[in-house]
Amino acid sequence: MDTPHIKVDIEGNLYFEGEKLTHDKIIEFFKKLDYEKIDDKEYLLKWNNNNNTHRISIMPEDTLFIVKDVVKEGGEIKLVLNDETMEKLETNTLEFNGNIPYASIKRGRIKARFNRHAAFRLGEIILNT
Question: What global pTM score does this model have?
């Protein structure tokens, strides 16, 4: 029997035991958790409750985070992630796998894949700079 884990699909949606996680409070909870990278295909989510540390495995189809949009603010390029946070693009971490861009996020610890919209926005911003 499989151990319980959270799946992250190619679009960054979260699933637990086959059910899509959509509740705003659950999504908000995941934004605040600490991630430990096990390997390229598995992470551990850790949180404390009543002085007990809890863990659950997360298994992404590709990456744990998806860049959903790219915006330019005050001369900086910012990435809007699937956890609804925003981070500055560190251009030295930008890389391509075929025609799909990836960048390091979360203090350089995790790689995020750009969805199609974000990839086009990145191209527009670069061309107009």
Answer: 0.81
